[in-house]
Amino acid sequence: MQSYLIQHLLEASAEKFPDRDAVVSGADILSYADLCRHSLRLAKFLTQLGVVKSDRVGIMIEKSPETIVSIFGILMTGASYVPIDPGTPMNRISYIIRNCDIQVIITTLKGSEKCLGDDIREHGLSKIILTDSDPSFLVDESRKLEFFNWENVMEPSEDFAPILIPDTYPAYILHTSGSTGRPKGVVISHLNSLAFVNMAAEFFKVNPHDRIASHAPVHFDLSVFDIFVAIRQGAAIVLVPETLSMFPVRLAQFIDYNRITVWNSVASVGSMLAAKGQLERFSFNAMRLFLFSGDVMPVKYLRILVDAMCRCRFYNIYGQTEANSSLFYPVEKIPNNDEQKIPIGKPLPNFDAFALDENNEIITHPGQVGELYIEGSTVAMGYWDDPHKTMSQFIQDPRTDHFPRTVFRTGDLVTFNEDAEFLFLGRADHMVKSRGYRIQLDEIEAVLSTHSMIKEAIVLAIPDEALGNRLIGAVVPVEGKKPDEVEMKGHCSVYLPPYMIPERIDLYDEFPRTSTGKMDRRMLMTKMIKSK
Q: Under 8 Å CB-to-CB from 86, ≥6 apart: which residues?
């Protein structure tokens, strides 16, 4: 059958490889037949709850077999899934649920506690499916919420025919950091996603015998490769327990013991494995492909990984949620100089990339600096319910006036090396990456500035070879006040996920200023680095 919707990938593989492992989570294994059957049951249940095509259904659970079932079950109804980080603060969860008009959410008992605020229920959330608990003892005094048991959802039922929609319909909405203090919902269509998945499956030669580690959480765009490329090819998705990221030796052991063949993660995880994973203890005989992205991989750590996984091919991947992975650099040899940056390379098949300088001229030679633009079928539909932001980032291709063609303006500054490969130089705005997450510094500053004892706030990113960037806050308090650092971090935790909370917040009597009166971030950065 022709796959023009993401769920068609599962249906095709379930027919071709019914008994193959589809999802592996420790001792829990779902075959392709199981995964398709469970997804159909969920889809039928969701339609009975009133979910129709174009709806948005929330998923707020730690990665598990139920997560993968939820993704495909939602897609089979013609709706789009909205993954939400269970660890994110209630205010952020509330905003996403209200903004996307989510009426049904799949979560856990613990997660459901964050969905009980009056502001959420007043804006449409009415039904909660619990994957881990019997909801019969839960009582919602307002009688505005209904709770459902996952076991009841999975009860055998008559066949369900998945709802057919055009491939231009949204498949999922992924939220990234926003400069206004609110997350941005990036809307990805089936066409956007499949354009990437089909390319990646062929380009990286993924096959049914592969065991692909699924390390990234589903609200992170790296999960698109782990899940959908594996499903397309009939490979096994091996779910990596989220707690392992804190224990590099156990993570290395997991990779080796589970015979992982394809690894895809942010570069900081690779750096951590190299620095603290005791890789010499393991053989990594099965590993054939190691993809890293999101941060700059220090050469010294890349060298350790290449030596430890000698049968493996390494690729530096560049991308962003709005266009998925778009550039690649195959690591053929390791630079001798540890200070040398690994290029982000050239466009993957079915992509085009170009950069414009400050005069809107296309850069063509080494040394020229410009902002990177991406073109391709994977470029997202835009930002959910934010036409102004969409128009500013998803623009008409400036290279042609003859017909409309959308390109994504990344905000990343690049140049070329002597081999005509792109080199990443930094952000044109205040967006940074830390631990693989894209973070808008303005969002953290906006939250800090709401503190009653803070007059002005700046957040700077201090380069760190392991994490990509360390987030350091600086504040000028209201006259006569001296806010406590622990309390300020607690204030941030109410509105921001843990990875966006500054690791340190320094107090200043006043910020350095430029001759025009603007806050001098460069001078403040110098002071912060000296005070490390």
A: 60, 61, 62, 107, 108, 110, 111
d(CA 490, CA 488): 5
Q: What is the CA radius of gyration of the chain?
A: 23
Decide: 526 and 504 in contact? Cβ < 8 Å: no
Cα–Cα distance, 242 to 500 (Å, whole number): 18
pLDDT in tens, the chain (532 residues): 678 999 999 999 999 999 999 999 999 999 999 999 999 999 999 999 999 999 999 999 999 999 999 999 999 999 999 999 998 888 899 999 999 999 999 999 999 888 876 666 566 899 999 999 877 666 655 557 899 999 999 998 878 999 999 999 999 999 988 766 789 999 999 999 999 999 999 999 999 999 999 999 999 999 999 999 999 999 999 999 988 988 999 999 999 999 999 999 999 899 899 999 999 999 999 999 999 998 778 888 999 999 999 999 999 999 999 999 999 999 998 888 776 889 999 999 999 999 999 899 999 999 899 999 999 999 999 999 999 999 999 999 999 888 889 999 999 999 999 999 999 988 887 778 888 888 888 889 888 988 989 988 999 998 887 788 899 999 999 889 999 999 999 999 999 999 999 999 999 998 887 655 567 888 888 877 776 6
Rounded to whole angstroms, the Cα distance separating 215 from 86 reads 16
370 φ/ψ angles, rounded to the nearest 5 degrees:
-155, 170
Tokens representing residue 198 in the block: 């089909």
Q: How far is CA 505 from the centre of its chain?
A: 26
Distance, in Å, from the CA atom of 207 to the CA atom of 8, rounded to the nearest integer, reads 18
Q: Which helix (H) or strand (E) holds 166?
A: none
Cα distance between residue 153 and residue 42, in whole Å: 6
Q: How far apart are CA 174 and CA 381, in angstroms?
A: 12
